[in-house]
Amino acid sequence: MGMQVKMMRMLSCLLVAWLGLATGCGSGSGSPPGQTGGTPGIGTGGTSSDTGRGGATVAGGNGGAGTSGGQGSGGDAAMPVTGGTPAGGTSGSSSAQTGGSSSPASGGATGGVSATGGQGSGGKNTGGSSGNGGSATGGNPIGTGGKATGGSAGNSGSGGAMGSGGITMGGASGAGGKTGTPDASISAYHPCPTDGTACKIMPFGDSITDGYNQDTPGGYRVELFRLAHSAGKNITFVGSGYNGPDTVDGAAFPHNHEGHSGWTIAPAGGRSGISTLVSTVMPKYTPDIILLMIGTNDAIDNYDMANAPTRLKALIDSIYALLPKVLIVVAQPIPSRGDASKGDDTALSDRIKAFNATLPAVVKAQSDAGKHILLVDMFTPFNPNKASLIEDQWHPNLAGYVLLGTQWYSALQPLL
Question: What is the pTM of this model?
Answer without folding.
Answer: 0.59
